[in-house]
Design goal:
The complex is a heterodimer of chains A (172) and B (478). By secondary structure, chain A is an alpha+beta fold. In chain A, 23% of the residues lie in helices and 30% in strands. Chain A is built from two helices and eleven strands. With 478 residues, chain B is mainly alpha-helical. The N and C termini of chain B lie far apart (74 Å).
């Protein structure tokens, strides 16, 4: 009795061509969804690779503060400090005032793996604590594993201040 | 009451099927002869679960800001309730995970468990190995102290050696051209989202394959894996000698898990978490960064590589290791499983373990690092008041010779011990060697005056004729 009053459930029978088409359109729509979500996500994460970051001149002290023939460490803000970076926005260089009066600024990063090199004033050498790289006072390699000399930053004097061109961590 | 509970359980099962699903998982048959050999995988899983739980707890207090993270870690370590203990558990949990992954891998390799049909289980395991190491490294960086800062620079420099795309990889890691505000939040995202997601994915695949292909039986000498017949043989073995996983085999996993948890908790309580170094200020240069213990061997490898080999090694060797490990089950997926019939496999494992241990010991000694804290030799150690020798002793310290060379047990280990150098080199040879340098020694020709050189040589020559310094004085500068 019940079966007489029940209506048959309609069933849409799809042709093979239509099934194939619907399958493909589903995949295409899914792919478009993935692209819509994925492009901003990937762009945001990889943004630092393409974001323009200008090198910036940073004053590190008055010319008179530096004695000829001495190499001292100077600290300054990196070229793109963020407000929430705290002390990690600081960076440093080894600044040498030449006997001729000019200045040369060396990166503190060892050319081997980037560890902070130290200046030994009495030995006139830079030494790296990590793997024992050694550099002469002019930044050239004296011993150890570094493949090249210390990276040099451009230096200039403006209005009596020594300025270093703060730039990227030297990576080759 | 009991009826209500039963009806509720039945209704839950009717709607979800989870009870029968997990019942199947727990009771699925496993070979009955595995004993204590197959407990390491579950031990790794337990260590990972500890990491997830303690990591979530730590994340409720951690602030992934380059400017604040150091202070937050100070607070977690010294002020937060159980913060020090939790940090300790997270650190030793990571250490246990890395150690146990290694042990699990060695056991699987030696017993040939990676052979047909479990090749993909090995491959997912290799992926888990590298993701686990990446987790450990990114975790060390989250401490965000001086060591973390310089380890970040070191990682960026290493990535920078990759041909063509090195600079981009380094910049991606740092979140910009320099280390700073964008760096830490990046590591945090990797450590708590990307890498754990990868671990969950590969662990899920790993466990699914364990169920799908079953746990391999203990290897038997002469019983070779033949892909044509293996599954039928395995089914027969399970029918005849199989036991339900729970509790017949699982109890051993639980016992080991208990041991892992207790050991990690005990180490966290009695040893505590790694010490926090100085604040993350890249302009502070008096720093001696070194990796956590599990990467010390690599630290040593990088120091001991022949000059000019680093770029090749840093990029090519990890790639080659990954490719080789992934190819292991492809190249050797059948044949003997028992280690007694696979001497090359045993030899390879012994060689790798011995090599890693040797490099690890060297990494912990770091003899190539200058000993910057070497003190000038005392009057008792100099052993004479002769002016040239006293002046030479001071030059030996001030010019950094003592940072790399030992005299009478004092000084660094990078260069040879010079206590008896007068036996090996004449005065002229000494002068030439100091002036010209060579090998890992800089030239001092432009640094020392003629008199300095005389005094330094006089000091070195005097070491063989003078008695050793008194023990008390010698111990003043270890």
């Amino acid at each position: 009795m019940a079966s007489e009053t029940q209506k048959p459930i309609p069933r849409e029978v799809l042709s093979p061509e239509r099934r194939r088409f619907l399958g493909r359109i589903s995949l295409v729509l899914s792919a478009i969804c993935a692209v819509i979500v994925g492009i901003p996500v990937v762009g945001f994460i990889f943004g630092p690779l393409i974001a323009p970051e200008q090198d910036v001149w940073r004053a590190v002290g008055a010319v008179g503060n530096f004695k000829a023939g001495e190499t001292v460490s100077v600290s300054f803000l990196d070229p793109s400090p963020m407000e929430w970076a705290g002390v990690s926005a600081l960076t440093a260089a080894w600044l040498r005032r030449l006997d001729s009066g000019g200045f040369v600024a060396f990166s503190v990063n060892c050319a081997h793996l980037g560890c902070p090199v130290r200046w030994l004033p009495k030995a006139d050498l830079f030494m790296c604590p990590c793997h024992g790289g050694v550099y002469y006072a002019d930044g050239s390699v004296a011993a150890g594993p570094p493949p090249r000399g210390l990276f040099k930053y451009p230096v200039r004097v403006r209005n009596g201040q020594v300025e270093i061109l703060a730039s990227a961590v030297p990576i080759e | 009451m009991r009826n209500i509970l039963k009806r509720a359980v039945d209704a839950f099962e009717d709607r979800t099927g989870l009870i029968s699903f997990f019942g199947y998982l727990m009771r699925h048959p496993v070979p009955g002869d595995t004993g204590w050999w197959y407990v390491f995988g579950s031990a790794v899983l337990v260590a990972f679960m500890i990491q997830v739980v303690t990591g979530i707890a730590l994340a409720t207090r951690y602030v992934a800001s380059s400017g604040s993270a150091y202070q937050v870690l100070q607070f977690i370590t010294y002020h937060a309730v159980l913060g020090n203990f939790l940090r300790g558990m997270h650190f030793f949990g990571a250490s246990a995970m890395i150690l146990l992954v290694g042990v699990h891998m060695i056991q699987v390799f030696l017993m040939g468990c990676y052979k047909y049909p479990r090749e993909f289980n090995w491959i997912s395991g290799v992926m888990l190995l590298f993701v686990t190491i990446a987790m450990g490294f990114s975790g060390q960086l989250l401490r965000w102290d001086q060591t973390a800062v310089w380890a970040t620079v070191l990682a960026a420099e290493m990535l920078g050696r990759t041909p063509f795309i090195g600079k981009y990889l380094a910049r991606f890691l740092l979140g910009g051209k320099t280390l700073g505000g964008a760096t830490l939040s990046r590591f945090f995202a990797f450590h708590v989202f990307f890498l754990p997601a990868a671990i969950f994915m590969f662990v899920g695949l790993h466990l699914y394959l364990v169920i799908h292909d079953g746990i391999s039986a203990m290897p038997v000498p002469g019983q070779k894996v033949n892909p044509e017949t293996y599954r039928a043989e395995y089914e027969k073995l399970l029918e005849e000698h199989g036991v339900p996983f729970w509790p017949d085999a699982a109890w051993r996993d639980v016992v080991v898990a208990f041991g892992v948890v207790v050991t990690i908790a005990a180490l966290a309580y009695f040893v505590g978490p790694p010490h926090l170094g100085e604040p993350p200020n890249p302009s502070v240069l008096a720093n001696d960064p070194s990796p956590d213990w599990y990467m010390l061997w690599y630290y040593a490898v990088l120091a001991l590589l022949p000059r000019g080999m680093e770029s090749v090694f840093m990029v090519a060797a990890p790639m080659a290791a990954i490719v080789f490990l992934l190819l292991v089950p492809v190249l050797w997926n059948k044949g003997e499983r028992h280690p007694s019939r696979r001497p090359w496999a045993v030899a390879a494992v012994i060689m790798i373990v011995l090599s890693l241990t040797a490099f690890w010991i060297e990494g912990s000694r770091a003899p190539w690092s200058p000993k910057f804290d070497a003190q000038p030799l005392s009057a008792a150690q100099v052993g004479t008041t002769s002016p040239p020798i006293v002046a030479g002793a001071l030059l030996f310290h001030d010019n950094g010779c003592e940072f790399c060379h030992t005299v009478d047990g004092h000084g660094g280990m990078r260069g040879p011990d010079l206590t008896d150098v007068a036996h090996r080199l004449s005065v002229d040879d000494l002068r030439i060697r100091i002036a010209n340098g060579g090998g890992n020694m800089p030239s001092f020709a432009g640094i020392l005056t003629h008199d300095d050189l005389d005094n330094l040589v006089a000091f070195l020559e005097s070491r063989e004729t003078l008695p050793a310094a008194p023990a008390q004085a010698a111990s003043a500068h270890p």
